[in-house]
Amino acid sequence: MKDMSEKPLLIVGEDLCQQLVGRSDAFDAVQDVFAAMARGDAYNFPVIREAIGYADALYGFKSGFDRAGQVLGVKSGGYWPGNLDKGLTNHQSTVFLFDPDTGRLSALVGGNYLTAVRTAASSAVSIAHLARKDSKVLGMVGAGHQSAFQLRAAAEQRDFEKVVAWNPHPEMLPRLGEVAKEIGLDFEAVSQEELGAQADVIITITSAFEPLLMKDWIKPGTHLACMGTDTVGKQEVDAALVASATVYTDEVAQSITLGEAQHAIANGSLTEDQITPIGAVINGDHSGRASADEITLFDGTGVGLQDLAVASVAARLADEAGLAQRAAL
Amino acid sequence: MKDMSEKPLLIVGEDLCQQLVGRSDAFDAVQDVFAAMARGDAYNFPVIREAIGYADALYGFKSGFDRAGQVLGVKSGGYWPGNLDKGLTNHQSTVFLFDPDTGRLSALVGGNYLTAVRTAASSAVSIAHLARKDSKVLGMVGAGHQSAFQLRAAAEQRDFEKVVAWNPHPEMLPRLGEVAKEIGLDFEAVSQEELGAQADVIITITSAFEPLLMKDWIKPGTHLACMGTDTVGKQEVDAALVASATVYTDEVAQSITLGEAQHAIANGSLTEDQITPIGAVINGDHSGRASADEITLFDGTGVGLQDLAVASVAARLADEAGLAQRAAL
Predict the structure, then answer these.
(1) What's the pLDDT score for residue A329?
(2) CA-CA to B3 of 20 to 30 Å: which in A76, A265, B104, B172?
(3) Which residues of A touch B108 (CB under 8 A)?
(4) Does residue B107 contact residue B20 with C-beta atoms inside 8 Å?
């Protein structure tokens, strides 16, 4: 039973992921897997999420299979709130990839950096396909760890001139301002209302449990990418805004249960069949934005296949560059 | 964020598992985790199992957390029917262990050998706690890959003198006979009725979808360990036998839905509250066998915590012996 045992297990650490996987790699990988999902060539397995009753940790798995890309695997990980005091990040993720032809473990990939990159790629894909071409002002709601990744990826999709930003903790905004300056964009800390009045594209990336943007503050033609809501009870924007927008998502099943659309679905102002998988737009099966005045909203819930897609890129690039550690099982 | 990065990831391959993890290690680990489950100190997360629509593969995850043993992790793997032609085993398993204090991946352990060992340990634990002390004849139903592991582990629990065996494919029995001889036991290939008439302890380890042993063939005082049924629709023994026996299991939730008890539950001849977790006997909260005439039946469904328990032993022993490969994520 040893014939294929020379095929080594690739191990790709966090540093190597950061070195090798760029924003355009992540964009392409996430765009492709969203398209495969909408065609029925890729699907996510049920998500496992458990409060383990120890160390206040939330732990679980996201997994799936992309037949088109030949990517099979699982991202394991969770949230350990005490980690920062130990010099570790609170979110810990690892991706395991398997050979779809044999079931053998093929790669082990650090998932912390990749999680940020794939989430940013998701909103960037939505901007590429749904935002007005003449969008000039990018609005950022949220200024945490992920916001800089979001800003960098979004900035590459349109000829933005300016970033307007709001965060529940305003003292965190200057760090995001530094990122904006670094990529040559003006930066202004504004009120929530002012953000809505100025922005052509808005990304929300918070852990909020109440609406931070109301329907009346948003101007016609805006594209919103709501990236923070991934749990029952979380909410970033007014349910009336969601109901009045044309809604797209990564996975409809998650959008209606634990994504930003959950509240509009729950109060009956939005129905499941009004939500379009972004992959349908990528595939050309849905025409996307209908007019310059339409408000489009992307409900980015985050699916395991995104993680597997970017991890697969990391493994391939590390293998090609001869930089992956190798082990045998 | 590097303070703890010197703590390496341990990689323990199949060969090392075979070299280091003995039957008594597996017995102790499985006995301890069954006890922890019954006390509420350990629990299994929901099982993911998917027919992925490619290579006829069944793929999935079993996971859980043992707070008492401080073991957190997931066994991934599945069944790839085309592997034998490629020189690989059809069942492919890998276990991933995480540090419960931080969520970091701590060990990667080959799961193929360990799956056989932990399944054998499970029936052995049931024999140790439920079979009559004066049991002399061991009955084996099944002669596949797992049967030799089952026989070796069971033989250590009682002073058996003889093995009687039956298999749907009788040509496979001589190989099991060699194992019996190796450990000093007489071996006889018999009919199913004769097996029931002679055996004091019976292990069933097949992939059957219909009863192989009927109630009337089993003599009073027998202990049965039904180890093959792990899926809806599978069945190894007569539902009337299950209903008339005193039933124990590893996990009640699995026993009633996909274990051997599913059929007696479905026809109403057994109720959930009549099934006792074997851990309750191990802990002394249930007195176990009530008389020399009682028929006891252990429904071994197989839980993720068993895999994590033996993998944790493998990682510890490999680390102590300085034999584990090490990597950094």
Answers:
(1) 86
(2) A76
(3) 105, 108, 327, 329
(4) no
pLDDT reported for residue A2:
41
**A76 touches B: beta carbon within 8 Å:** yes
Are residues A88 and B104, on separate chains, in Cβ contact within 8 Å?
yes
**Angstrom distance (rounded) from CA A40 to CA A34:** 10
Does the annotation mark A62 as catalytic? Answer: no
Between positions 254 and 293 of A, the ones with CB within 8 A of B are: none
Mean pLDDT value of segment B265-285: 98
pLDDT band at A4 (very low <50, low <70, confident <90, very high): very low
Enumerate the β-bridge partners of residue A137.
Answer: A162
Judged by CB atoms closer than 8 Å, whether chains meet at B13 and A77 is answered as no
**Among the partner residues B48, B104, B110, nearest to A329 by beta-carbon distance:** B110
Kindly report the pTM of this predicted structure.
0.93
Confidence of residue B1 (pLDDT cuts 50, 70, 90): very low
Per-residue pLDDT at A176 exceeds 70: yes
From A7-11, A63-67, B163-167, the region with the lowest mean pLDDT: A7-11
For residue B84, the chain A residue with the least C-alpha distance is A1
Beta bridge partners of B43: B65
pLDDT exceeds cutoff 70 at A66: yes
- Is the model's pLDDT at B21 over the cut of 50? yes
Nearest CB to B329; choose among A79, A94, A105: A94
Q: What does the pLDDT average to over A186-202?
A: 98
The whole-angstrom separation of Cα A46 and Cα B59 is: 13
Q: A227 vs A9, A230, A240, A309, B10, CA distance in Å?
A: 33, 8, 18, 18, 35
Residues in A closer than 8 angstroms to B3, CB to CB, are 86-88
Q: Do B104 and A92 touch (CB under 8 A)?
A: yes
**Look-up: residue for tokens 């053998």?**
A104
Give Cα separations from A266 to A133, A206, A259, A261, B112 (angstroms). Answer: 33, 21, 12, 9, 46
The whole-angstrom separation of Cα B55 and Cα A69 is: 15
Both tokens assigned to A156? 């590459």
Angle at A270 (CA atoms; ends A267, A271), nearest 5 degrees:
110
ipTM of the complex: 0.91
